């Protein structure tokens, strides 16, 4: 058996088309909407994502600036910049890339992003609102996972969903989105005992870890739907997921890397900007 391939390209293209229409209307009514991406990392996956957002933004008619504070940026420096962008009436969306420099925690600085401009749902207030069912911008990656499952009619109500990874960017907000859809949610992390036993119970398994091919056939039961969020650079300049391709022999469905969650993430980030 080989798993159904849950590609994200078509969904992403549809989202971008809707964004382009709304961005054009907005530009014709005044000025283009503007996103500013703040970065302080030389992480390859982050650099790739930033280039991808900037290029896609240009194509849909959004302005996008990249504000690189360098890997020596401090929490105070980052907070000050995020607060200034939040107060700038010419800026509509503010996004902070992770990872952050050593010693700087996301929660120490993300509070400086105005929740009204918090297009990647980084402010703790945004996560709190998401967790309590109030309107909020969901982190684009977490939203992309649910959008992709919806695209392929994967039922979530009552399903056992297991998320591997508990970051504020992916795992935690995703757990809330899945709960909101009436899944029974388990979140795993680096201290989880007997990971394979937990992941084997999943109807829907999401890997958001950042470890190449961590999820092997031994981690899944036959018929599971697997979403691979991982984007790990390979030595040859390619990209590998968190899920071993051999899982396709056991799973019912699997999202590819590249071409799965990634393109949908970029499209939903831009959608949050026009929203
Ligand atoms: N395709 C896309 O759109 C996106 C892809 N990504 C990619 O997704 C991956 C995860 O990103 P992010 O959440 O930011 O990463 P983080 O490094 O912030 O979080 C990784 C999580 O994985 C857990 N973990 C690490 N090792 C293990 C292990 N051996 N077993 C179980 N859990 C483990 C960590 O646990 P602990 O908390 O205990 O340390 C942590 O919760 C990366 O590859 C990133 O590039 C990210 C965003 C978007
Ligand atoms: N605050 C924050 N939010 C993030 O969402 C975030 C972040 N920080 N830091 C870095 C990671 C990484 N990330 C990716 C998103 C899309 C692709 C993507 O679209 N990749 C393409 C392929 C790229 C290629 O072929 O090289 C794909 O999967 O098809 C990759 C990586 C978001 N991240």
TrEMBL record:
It catalyses: (6R)-5,10-methylene-5,6,7,8-tetrahydrofolate + NADP(+) = (6R)-5,10-methenyltetrahydrofolate + NADPH; (6R)-5,10-methenyltetrahydrofolate + H2O = (6R)-10-formyltetrahydrofolate + H(+). NADP(+) binds at residues 165-167, 231. One of its GO terms (biological process) is purine nucleotide biosynthetic process. Keywords: Amino-acid biosynthesis, Histidine biosynthesis, Hydrolase, Methionine biosynthesis, Multifunctional enzyme, NADP, One-carbon metabolism, Oxidoreductase, Purine biosynthesis. It holds the Pfam family THF_DHG_CYH. Residues 7-120 form the Tetrahydrofolate dehydrogenase/cyclohydrolase catalytic domain. InterPro entries: Aminoacid_DH-like_N_sf, NAD(P)-bd_dom_sf, THF_DH/CycHdrlase, THF_DH/CycHdrlase_cat_dom, THF_DH/CycHdrlase_NAD-bd_dom. Its EC number is 1.5.1.5, 3.5.4.9. Residues 139-274 form the Tetrahydrofolate dehydrogenase/cyclohydrolase NAD(P)-binding domain. GO terms for molecular function: methenyltetrahydrofolate cyclohydrolase activity; methylenetetrahydrofolate dehydrogenase (NADP+) activity. GO terms for cellular component: cytosol. Pathway: One-carbon metabolism; tetrahydrofolate interconversion. Catalyzes the oxidation of 5,10-methylenetetrahydrofolate to 5,10-methenyltetrahydrofolate and then the hydrolysis of 5,10-methenyltetrahydrofolate to 10-formyltetrahydrofolate. PANTHER family: C-1-TETRAHYDROFOLATE SYNTHASE, CYTOPLASMIC (PTHR48099:SF5), C-1-TETRAHYDROFOLATE SYNTHASE, CYTOPLASMIC-RELATED (PTHR48099). Homodimer. Belongs to the tetrahydrofolate dehydrogenase/cyclohydrolase family. This is Bifunctional protein FolD. It comes from Jiangella alba.
């Amino acid at each position: 058996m080989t798993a159904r391939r849950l590609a994200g390209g078509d969904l992403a293209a549809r989202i971008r088309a809707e964004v382009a229409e709304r961005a054009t209307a907005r530009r014709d009514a005044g000025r283009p909407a503007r996103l500013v991406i703040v970065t302080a990392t030389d992480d390859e996956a982050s650099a790739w994502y930033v280039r991808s957002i900037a290029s896609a933004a240009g194509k849909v008619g959004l302005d996008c600036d990249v504000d690189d504070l360098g890997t020596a940026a401090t929490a105070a420096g980052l907070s000050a910049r995020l607060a200034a962008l939040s107060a700038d009436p010419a800026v509509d969306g503010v996004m902070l890339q992770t990872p952050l420099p050593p010693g700087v925690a996301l929660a120490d600085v993300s509070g400086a992003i105005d929740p009204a401009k918090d297009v990647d749902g980084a402010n703790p207030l945004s996560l709190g609102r998401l967790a309590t069912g109030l309107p909020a911008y969901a982190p684009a990656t977490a939203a992309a996972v649910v959008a992709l499952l919806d695209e392929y009619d994967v039922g979530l109500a009552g399903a056992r969903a297991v998320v591997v990874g508990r970051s504020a960017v992916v795992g935690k907000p995703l757990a809330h989105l899945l709960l909101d859809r009436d899944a029974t949610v388990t979140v795993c992390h680096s201290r989880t005992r007997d990971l394979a036993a937990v992941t084997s119970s999943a109807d829907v398994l999401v890997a958001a870890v950042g470890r190449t091919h961590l999820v092997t056939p031994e981690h899944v039961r036959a018929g599971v739907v697997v979403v691979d969020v991982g984007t790990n650079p390979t030595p040859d300049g390619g990209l590998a997921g968190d899920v071993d391709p051999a899982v396709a022999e056991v799973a019912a469905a699997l999202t590819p890397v590249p071409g799965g969650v990634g393109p949908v993430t970029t499209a939903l980030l831009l959608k949050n900007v026009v929203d």
